[in-house]
Amino acid sequence: DTKAPTGSLTINDNTLYTRSRYVYLNLNASDDRSSQAEIQFRVGEGTSQTNVAWGSWQGFSSRVQYIMGYGDGQRNIWVMYRDAAGNTSQAYGAYVVLDTKAPSITNLAVSNITTQSAVVSFRTNEPSFANVEYGTASYSLSLSAGDNEAQSASVSSAEPTAVIITPNPTPTRTGTTSFNFNVTGLRASTTYYYRVVAVDLA
Description:
mainly beta
């Protein structure tokens, strides 16, 4: 047996962003002589396939947990496969963008106020989805204008640590950094409270 196994690697079911260092690796390997149960793999991180800090060899599994290094940004993960005869595959790579910081909101302003509507505008420091939640009591902001993907009830302020976050589907939109939401249905001579919520692509 002189032929090396072949395979592939995806991260978190092929999502592009994550807010947790703890991810799933989806592994696939095949060999013309060895069964999948006889194949081993090793995983590492590095900027390229020639600069990888490899882990130890271990028995094959199609889905494994992996803890990435610290630091936001693109994380490049690599895997190699080895068959029962000791033939070693090339390094297969995939990447995910680690983003552990929530977007910052600036330039918050209210304009074009009429007896029935107002425009809430603001900016974020990274592409995001956003929403304005408002109401006549500060403890009950039950009305909203904007993107339903950004709701305060679904936003956690806790930075993820030793948990694997179930990946969200890859966004079909790219998000934006500038927002102008038209808040309608207001009543004249009534005080309204509001907050804005921004969720980034991770």
